[in-house]
Amino acid sequence: MRPARYAAFALVAALAVTGCAQQSPAVAAYVGDRTYDQSTVDAIFEEARAAFDADQATLAAAGAPGEAGDELESPSFPITRRHVVDLLLAIDLGRRAADRRDLAPSGRRVPGELVESVLGVPAETRYVALYQDWYQLYGTLQENLAPGEVTDDRMMTVYQALVDAHAIDPGLSVPVVREQFGGGEFAGPPLAVSDLLREEAERAGAVVNPKYLPAAVPMIASANNQSFPYRMPYLEDRTVVTAG
Q1: Is the residue at 20 inside a domain?
Q2: Which CATH number covers residue 205?
Q3: How many domains does the chain divide into?
Q4: Is the pLDDT of residue 69 over 60?
Q5: Residue 134 falls within a domain, yes or no?
Q6: What does pLDDT average to over the chain?
Q7: How many CB atoms are located within 10 Å of the residue 138 CB?
Q8: What digits encode the pLDDT tens for the residues 131-184?
């Protein structure tokens, strides 16, 4: 009985150590054999915030004084560390998917100034450079993927993601969404890409620090000559998020 008990104890101990490692506060995420340290996430985030604060200070110093009470509210910093993790994971998983399909980069590289105008993060930051990498990769993947299946539930998953980003009116029913948005075809491309990253995350055994869950694909929607960033969840607590 002793050997059996010892073996069982050793197995439990090994699982405990593995679980602790996968949820280490010093690690933001694991994808396959790659580790994304919290320090990397912090560095990208803090650089972006410092650049943003410097730009706001410059604008405030250059502004002419107005009447009391006329001051405009300063914009708040538009991203969190979760956005940084989303971006790092999307690039990693997207590249794995492109390599698996032998896809050469074909999407256009968006100028940093244009990314800044949409995201509100200064163009010279590493965050924007990473977003440029992702947007180019996203274009490559989208060009080579058939649109995802758009059931009512999956369409409303995309709709809710847009609502959460304040890019679309809340409270619309399924028939209204289909009527106002071309039968729901708008949901096909983002569903295809999020499905693909979900498959890659599952294949690579991706594990994300719980404070950054659910992991989501960075997306941009356009309407009425405006562009809006939004997030499409695909990975939650080591399990796959299903859209419907």
Answers
A1: no
A2: 1.10.4030
A3: 1
A4: no
A5: yes
A6: 84
A7: 22
A8: 999 999 999 998 899 989 999 999 999 999 999 988 888 999 999 998 888 888
CA distances from 48 to 15, 36, 220 (A): 38, 18, 19
Burial class (CB in 10 A: 0-12, 13-18, 19+), 45: buried
- Residue 97, classed as helix, strand or coil, is helix
What 3-state DSSP class applies to 216?
strand
Given the structure tokens 């594990």, which residue do they identify?
207
Give the residue numbers spanning the domain of 132. Answer: 27-55+78-240
pTM higher than the cut 0.85: no
pLDDT at 224: 72
Cα distances (angstroms) measured from residue 94 to each of 148, 158, 161: 16, 19, 20
Residue 65: inside a domain, yes or no?
no
Residue 127 or residue 2, greater confidence: 127
Q: Are 152 and 173 in contact (CB under 8 A)?
A: no
d(CA 112, CA 215): 24
Distance (Å, whole) CA 6 – CA 9: 5
Tokens of 185: 């075809």
